[in-house]
Design goal:
By secondary structure, the chain is an alpha+beta fold. It is 52% helix and 15% strand. The protein has 2 domains: 105 residues, no CATH class; 74 residues, SH3 type barrels (Roll), CATH 2.30.30. It is built from 6 helices and 5 strands.
Length: 203
């Protein structure tokens, strides 16, 4: 019986990530298909529409949006819907959270030395963190509060969409040669991921 339970747990660790990944992918494909397929059916007619066209068009639109966002004026236009939702009481928190998570996972707005190893004061404990704010940005409220020799660092939590934001002196951190998205995956999995490469400190 004990061995059967061990086999069951082992099987679940193999199958559940696959099932959840495919379920999320299927949900995303179904949602995009549901939203965009009526538009293509209206433009092309039922006889010319095929399943998957909506998703392909969504990817093309995403590429075009990313391409045109290079220009400041058009990028400002793309940001208008987000600014509108950021002013709505209910949608504000949801939109801001989702947007921040995607920015963090994609490495948006992070410099090359954003991922650091933080040594906790008075101990030998070190944590992987991501630098979110530095001093000197007059347009940012937190940046204006930071001393020149201090930075704000996010410490992600394992197996949880959350973490702690701490303010530490620059002398307490050492840059790591990995991207913010890799750092998030590494810390959120607790270092147990099979494909993770452990970071090496820069010389």
């Amino acid at each position: 019986m004990k061995r059967a339970i061990q086999y069951l747990l082992r099987g679940l660790t193999i199958l559940l990530p696959l099932v959840i990944t495919f379920a999320l992918a299927a949900w995303l494909l179904t949602t995009i298909e549901t939203w965009l397929s009526p538009l293509w059916v209206a433009l092309l007619g039922e006889q010319f529409y095929f399943h998957g066209l909506a998703f392909i068009s969504f990817l093309v639109i995403a590429v075009l949006v990313g391409f045109t966002a290079r220009w400041a004026f058009i990028n400002t236009l793309w940001n208008v819907p987000g600014k509108v939702m950021a002013r709505m009481p209910v949608l504000r928190t949801l939109y801001s959270t989702v947007s921040d998570v995607f920015d963090l996972m994609s490495g948006t707005n992070f410099s090359n030395e954003s991922v650091v190893l933080v040594t906790m004061p008075g101990s030998q404990i070190r944590l992987i963190g991501i630098v979110t704010k530095k001093s000197g940005d007059s347009a940012d409220q937190l940046s204006k509060l930071l001393d020149e020799d201090h930075i704000a660092v996010l410490l992600p939590m394992s197996y949880n969409v959350g973490g702690y934001m701490i303010i530490v002196p620059r002398s307490a951190v050492v840059p790591l040669d990995i991207s913010p998205s890799e750092a998030m995956q590494l810390t959120m999995s607790g270092g147990l991921g099979k494909n993770h490469k452990y970071p090496n400190e820069k010389d």
